[in-house]
Design goal:
The protein is mostly helical. The chain contains 28 helices and three strands. Strands 2-1-3 form a three-stranded antiparallel β-sheet, with helices on both faces. The longest helix has 27 residues. The C terminus is likely disordered.
């Protein structure tokens, strides 16, 4: 211990917690500057960071100025000093990297008999539930073989490394894919991080309030990267202690604890630990509703988004008192990043059919309609509305919103290609489920016909399909004949043809999917 302190003080010039922290930040900046490199640069630097972080707490303890620094340097931390920190907005994942079922980044892409690619865990669940068709195309499956799409998986790993995005490969991933992962931790780094986690959790459990605050921040930073870090932090018992700090009257402690839970939730196995911890979900929602800082409230929303990636948790989250109402409030009045956190969480919750009523009662429908005019969140808002209006009570609620149809029409006119897809899908479902009154309201919308014709010529494949279905709905109404000339056989609207609902409608709602959560 004496020799170690001597080496740090005299050999490296690291005399206290402040200079130790500066050294760690410098090393992390070097990792950012070498983000495209594989071995050995990033791996060695990560090892140095792990050892320096451990020695920082071992040698210099939990000093008061560490807490004070959190407030002064909060903006600096959010701006991306550390390699995998994502600040003001999410990064849009390339569409081909997203599973058509969950719309999330695929961890283990596999090809089924129809030639479509899905994430292994999701398509396996689809088949186990007795489905024998392709979720995306509706084709019958010739067999249930799942062929690993190694080429796509390698591209995903490389893209994640280039953008500083955490990638947790499945446990049975072959070694050739693992070799592509940037900055794989060395054994020394893993052991140093384990030792650091042990120190931090001990302070969380028995330290003073100041020490607990510093420890929560340490866990937040340690959980930013690496499946190994997130796994052993949770296994070592951090979650109950972090949950206790969520109700702290110290804004720094609360903010760091909820962000630490957010970062831990990225690891799939930790989601169940968080949800199973008594009172933890309620405490997260409490921070969302009454958090002492804007960032704490936003990160609570992002945590709900992360947890709601598990289908079984969507209903539990929506049923938690005040959760949906608080998300709707954040969508209405939050910062740009807060709105993004809220709308993606609401979208996830809307994919569970039993959440429709609770979302209506909590004001989520009104908030989603209002978000149609916000370029940053309009696509997700339209996607959520397209799911809600599939149910008659949802269609009635959306149809009753004065600006709903106008907002969706506006997206068809000026939105992104994906926004246009979601807008026309929402209008189509509104007509199918909302009855005569809703259909009349959509039918009378100004410029609808021209916008439909434009989508039929220039829209994406999905947008064209939805536009054609909406045109058929209106053609069957005797007083509203359509006159789309020269569209070819692909868009012949047979008056007797009945549009069918897609069994996999969720896959037809296109959202610019972000990484599961921002790592902060």
């Amino acid at each position: 211990m004496v020799d170690l302190r001597l080496f740090f003080v005299e050999g490296l010039g690291i005399k206290d917690a402040k200079s130790s922290r500066a050294e760690i930040e410098f090393l992390e900046e070097q990792i950012v500057s070498h983000e495209g490199d594989i071995e050995p640069t990033a791996s060695v630097l990560n090892g140095f960071v792990a050892i320096a972080r451990y020695c920082r707490f071992l040698l210099y303890g939990f000093e008061e100025n560490e807490v004070e620094l959190q407030i002064g340097n909060q903006k600096k931390l959010r701006k991306g000093l550390i390699s995998q920190e994502i600040a003001e907005t999410f990064i849009t994942v390339p569409k081909d990297f997203c599973c058509p079922i969950s719309l999330d980044l695929m961890r283990d892409p596999v090809i089924i008999s129809t030639g479509q690619t899905y994430d292994r865990i999701l398509i396996s669940r689809w088949m186990e539930e007795g489905h024998c068709t392709c979720p995306k195309t509706g084709q019958m499956l010739m067999n249930t073989r799942l062929v690993p799409n190694r080429a796509l998986r390698n591209l995903i790993v490389q893209w994640c490394a280039a953008h500083g995005i955490p990638y947790d490969p499945p446990e049975n991933t072959d070694s050739s894919v693992e070799a592509f992962a940037a900055a794989m931790p060395s054994k020394a780094a893993i052991e140093a991080n384990r030792a650091t986690a042990t120190l931090l959790i001990h302070k969380l459990a028995s330290g003073s309030q100041r020490a607990q605050t510093v420890a929560a921040r340490g866990i937040r930073l340690l959980a930013k990267t690496g499946r190994e870090n997130r796994a052993f932090i949770a296994e070592a018992g951090a979650i109950p202690h972090l949950r206790n700090l969520l109700s702290s009257t110290n804004s720094v402690a609360q903010e760091n604890s909820v962000t630490a839970i957010l970062n831990l939730s990225i690891h799939d196995k930790n989601k169940s630990q968080i949800m199973d911890e008594k009172g933890c979900l309620g405490s997260i929602v409490g921070v969302l509703r009454f958090g002492l800082t804007t960032e704490a409230r936003e990160n609570a929303a992002a945590t709900l988004f992360s947890l709601s990636a598990v289908h079984d948790y969507k209903k539990r989250i929506a049923d938690e008192e005040g959760a949906v109402e608080a998300l709707a409030g954040l969508l209405r009045a939050g910062t740009p990043r807060g709105k993004k956190d809220a709308v993606t969480a609401l979208f996830n919750l809307s994919t569970h059919t039993e959440n429709c009523l609770s979302m209506m009662e909590a004001g989520a429908v009104t908030a989603l309609v209002g978000a149609l005019g916000n370029e940053g969140v309009a696509e997700e808002a339209a996607g959520a509305l397209a799911l809600i209006v599939r149910q008659p009570i949802g269609a009635e609620a959306v149809g009753g919103e004065e600006m709903a149809v106008a907002g969706l029409i506006g997206m068809m006119r000026c939105g992104t290609p994906r926004g246009k897809e979601n807008a026309v899908a929402a209008l189509l479902e509104l007509c199918r489920s909302g009855g005569t009154a809703a259909t009349e309201k959509v039918l009378k919308a100004p410029a609808l016909w021209g916008l439909l014709q434009s989508l039929l010529f220039t829209g994406t494949k999905r947008a064209r399909r939805k536009a054609a279905s909406l045109a058929r709905v209106f053609q069957r109404r005797e007083n509203y004949p359509l006159h789309f000339g020269g569209l070819g056989a692909g868009y012949a609207f047979a008056g007797n043809s009945a549009p069918s609902r897609d069994s996999s409608f969720v896959n037809e709602v296109s959202v610019p999917v972000s990484i599961s959560v921002p790592v902060l």
